[in-house]
Write a structure and sequence with these properties.
mainly alpha, 0% strand, extended
Length: 290
């Protein structure tokens, strides 16, 4: 009797669960379709607006998309004998770019460590100020490096210092967010043990938290260093020194100087590949142990 009483109830419950699941699946598909339509509409309208405000029009100029690269390559091949000398000539500018990236990464990482520890739940020195420090990092990430660099160039003049400050400012916000997420997953038992013996907040962070998160933090810092090399080269276009400044001058001269453009691109490519491989190797050693 109990079996005959329970089986109809179980069957009805399974039918109800199946109907609810199908309804949720249909609702999810409907929302997905609406989002897709909105996305396509925004992309199409944005492209139409940008094309209408463009001086020449996208479709009218797309046939010339390979004209400039072909001119650069043809002149670079024609003057290939000059490339070794140009690589040596622009090497000091590359070193300046690397210095900008290295110093800005170091300064930004140090600031990011402080902001991360002050904005991590369970570790913050002043828990009520966590939203303040989080919004501070959001603001630092939201402002592009080139905007900060342009403002600083207007105030301080051209040179590597505005680029370093701009990249360090943005790096602090970006790494602070990543560092905070890593710190939230730390084991709090060492911190509790240090608290029981009267350790200060700085001692608890230095001895209980940083040893746990250091490998991941260093991994993120190395990745950010790669990004900052590109950023420091780009900021050279706005007068912040480094190899980007030489690249802008060579491109402004036009034909006759395209061999310099090729040499600078070769230097940048080799540098980025080298540091990408080097940082990838050390990130694997730090995080995975091999």
């Amino acid at each position: 009797m109990s079996d005959t009483a329970t089986h109809p109830g179980m069957a009805a419950a399974s039918v109800t669960i199946r109907d609810n699941y199908l309804a949720m699946a249909r609702q999810k598909q409907m929302y997905g379709g609406i989002i897709l339509v909105i996305f396509i509409s925004m992309m199409a309208s944005g492209f139409y607006l940008a094309d209408s405000r463009n001086a020449g029009g996208f479709w009218n100029g797309i046939s010339n998309i390979f004209q400039f690269p072909s001119e650069v390559l043809s002149e670079g091949i024609e003057k290939a004998a000059n490339l070794p000398g140009l690589l040596v000539e622009f090497l000091p500018s590359l070193v300046e770019t690397l210095n900008i990236a290295a110093v800005s990464t170091l300064v930004g990482a140090v600031v990011a460590v402080v902001l991360a520890l002050l904005s991590t739940r369970g570790l913050a020195r002043w828990p009520r100020l966590i939203p303040v420090f989080r919004r501070m990092m959001d603001g630092m990430r939201a402002i592009p490096e080139i905007v900060i660099a342009l403002v600083l160039i207007f105030i301080l003049g051209g040179g590597p210092v505005p680029a370093m400050i701009a990249i360090a400012f943005h790096t602090a916000g970006a790494l602070g967010k990543l560092f905070s997420e890593v710190a939230e997953n730390t084991d709090l038992k060492p911190v509790e043990g240090l608290s029981s013996v009267g350790a200060s907040w700085t001692q608890k962070m230095w001895l209980g938290v940083i040893p746990q998160v250091a490998p991941n933090w260093l991994s993120y810092a190395l990745l950010r260093f790669e990004i900052n090399i590109r950023a420091s080269a780009i900021l050279g276009f706005v007068g912040s020194g480094g190899i980007g400044h030489d690249l802008r001058l060579a491109m402004q001269w036009g034909q006759g100087k395209y061999d310099q453009v090729v040499a600078i691109f070769i230097l940048l490519f080799l540098t980025i590949v080298f540091f990408d491989q080097l940082s990838s190797r050390y990130r694997n050693r730090l995080v995975k142990g091999h």
